[in-house]
Amino acid sequence: MALQRAEWTDVAACRGIESHLFFPPDAMESREVRSRRERQAKQVCADCHVREECLSSALTQRESYGIWGGLTEVERRSLLRR
Ligand code: SF4
Questions:
Q1: How far, in Å, from the CA of 64 to the mean position of ligand 1?
Q2: How far, in Å, from the CA of 58 to the mean position of ligand 1?
Q3: Which of 5, 8, 21, 74 is deepest in the core (most CB within 10 A)?
Q4: What pLDDT, in 10s, does the model give residues 33-56?
């Protein structure tokens, strides 16, 4: 049975972790800093038990920014084009 969003967000591995790890800052971010931030976020996602639910929700909602389900917005857009 699929979990509802209110349920899976309760057990998300990113719960309690600063959101700036998963979303780009308003100010410019260098390629190196962005790469390091995204790598760290993806490491959190890799250990997340609700990664599938998160990615599915992000794809359905067409989330435009941030790391969701272990994928960046660019990776999600690419996935949706297939
Ligand atoms: S997959 Fe990543 S962004 Fe999604 S809930 Fe889990 S830790 Fe958070």
A1: 15
A2: 10
A3: 8
A4: 999 999 999 999 999 999 999 999
